[in-house]
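My current task is to audit a protein record that another person submitted. I need someone to confirm that the token line plausibly describes how this chain folds. Take the sequence as given and treat only the tokens as open to question. This is what I was given:
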Amino acid sequence: MTFDRIAVLGAGAWGTALANAAVRAGRTVMLWGRGVSDDMAASRESPRLPGIKIEDSVEITRSIGRAAQADLVLLALPAQVLRPVCRDLRLLVRAGTPVVACAKGIERETRKFMTEVIKDVAPNTLPAVLSGPSFASDVGRGLPTAVTVAVSGDKLAAAIARALGSSTFRVYHSTDVRGVEIGGAAKNVLAIGAGIVQGRGLGPSAAAALTTRGFAELFRFGKEFGARPETLVGLSGLGDLILSCSSTQSRNFSLGIKLGEGRTSAEARGEPLAEGASTASVLVELARGRGLEMPIAEAVASVLDGRITVDGAIESLLTRPFRAEG
């Protein structure tokens, strides 16, 4: 299996970065976006990723039909808009084409993960997921980055990894689709909590505690939903959590900082998009449905929904009964 022609749907920061990465892997690349402008095509720069040039060989197109003829399609789109684009794609893409979700979230209305959305809407494709500790600016510039791609079938997973991987974009492969998806979705929510700790000035010890206990929540959730332990402690789980909970380049961490500094949820949300804000309540609902305790995720969801203040959320966590670690 070889994938020489790759289409990236979504011309924002992550889509632009992935297009550059695919070119560096030696592929023929098309970049599609509804908002693609003549200025962007002329300047070879996405307004969502300023200062980083789109590689000259990337074809920028407004035709989703043209992009759909690629051997491999990457969906670099926000989780909550993945479904309508997949609807457009399903009648255009060739049967058996791998379609890789590069968003980290859960669809709010259906509580479905991204590969489930792809399977729902475009059942003639092969749903896959790409996730891991990676900032768009790093990938776009060609700085060393490692991620994981997962799809049903080890040979297909390895082929996709080979198609996207290069000396600066190391792609590991897995068949644990759900595990990779859970890591990306859950860490976004927990990163908001880490940002709240930073914005409230609670100190590095509190930050370390929240990240560690947050990972315990992610791990419990993942195991309950069938994820493999090695996936959860790998790049798409623990690795992505560490990155997102420690840098203002993380949109979710930055959103949390604003909340911690005293801004309301409405004031803190906005551009750039933080996927965790849409995922938090869904993650908590799924956990409750399985009888799982996720106090940090619940506190984040409650703050975002305006049901509790930041100080109230902190107090609720600090006054929980003492218990054995696990």
